[in-house]
Amino acid sequence: MVGRRGRPAADRRDKVAVLLLNIATREIDAFLAGENPGGAPPLPKVLGHLDPNAILVKAGYSPDNRMITSRWGSIDAFRADAAVWALARNDRPSEPLPVRLATGLTDGVDPRRPVDAAIRTADTLLGELVADPRSYLIAHLAPLLKDHPEGGGTVAEGLRAEQRHWTDAYAQLMELTGVPLRAGWTPERVTLTLQAMITGFVIHQRVQPDDFEYARTSSYDKISLFADSVITFVLGVLDFDADGRTPRDVLAERWSS
How far apart are CA 186 and CA 188, in angstroms? Predict the structure, then answer.
């Protein structure tokens, strides 16, 4: 992200800047978890609640905004950079959970029982993301990313890095099970689709937890709606008959017969 003075973010991120950004992202996490003293402000103020003076004091400095404005050009630029910093997980020492799960997706998978691995991975991923306040940050800040191409590019590249892990895992899973994807589908398209699905599930699961729990307990197999949706989607894109047709062709034939 670029502040009013036009300096790129990388030039501002000395040790002090990294310390301030890390504290700011913890403040963002607390906000998204509803832990702000006095209650959380309205959604448009997800960044406005960041108090630069309080952040400086927590970092061990006097509350002088010039320490921030000299690096970012403005308080707003600092807040926006903190959001991108949090979205890119630059303050976390370990790999994001989605990357760790993708890396281990095919470990120990019985080729005869890949559905069990899919359910286990889906439920673990959704549960961990719902419990992580930062997983809601991108929904809050989509307009910010649109208005700040550099920041949006940083976040998008972080997402693509995660997607590459999943794409590789899906390709390995296809090879392991010996079942190809239907015509027009690739591991990359599967990754994009499932990532979009889980983003929606994470948001709605937080807003409607009782509805999603009922969807699980009332299901035939008593599995989560997300895991059931993943299985249903996978069933549609796998070409078990190896006939080379698209899902659209198969559905049109089944419905017209």
Answer: 5
| Cα distance between residue 179 and residue 83, in whole Å | 41
How far is Cα 64 from Cα 95, in angstroms, rounded to an integer? 34
Name the amino acid, one letter, at 191: T
Distances (CA, A) of 114 to 105, 107, 110, 219: 10, 11, 6, 20
Instruction: State the distance between the two ends of the chain, measured CA to CA, in whole angstroms.
Output: 56
Instruction: Return the axis-axis angle of helices 149-177 and 114-131, rounded to nearest 10°.
Output: 160
- 94-116 in b/e form (b: 16+ CB < 10 A) is eebbbbebbeebbeebeeeebee
Q: What would the 3-class secondary structure string for 189-257 be?
A: HHHHHHHHHHHHHHHHHHHCHHHHHHHHHCCCCCCCHHHHHHHHHHHHHECCCCCCCCHHHHHHHHHHC
Nearest to 178 by CA among 232, 230, 123, 114: 114
**In terms of residues, how long is the chain?**
257
CB 177 within 8 A of CB 114: yes
| Model pLDDT for residues 99-110, shown as the tens digit of each residue | 667 666 666 556
CA dist., res. 59 & res. 51, Å (int): 12
Tell me the two tokens of residue 171.
């390709």
Number of CB atoms found within 10 A of residue 41's CB: 12
**Tokens 């699980």 sit at which residue?**
216
Residue 186 has pLDDT above 90, yes or no: yes
Q: What is the pTM of this model?
A: 0.72
In the chain, % helix, strand, coil (3-state, to 5) comes to 65, 0, 30
Round the CA-based radius of gyration of the chain to a whole number and report it: 22
Separation of alpha carbons 46 and 41, rounded Å: 7
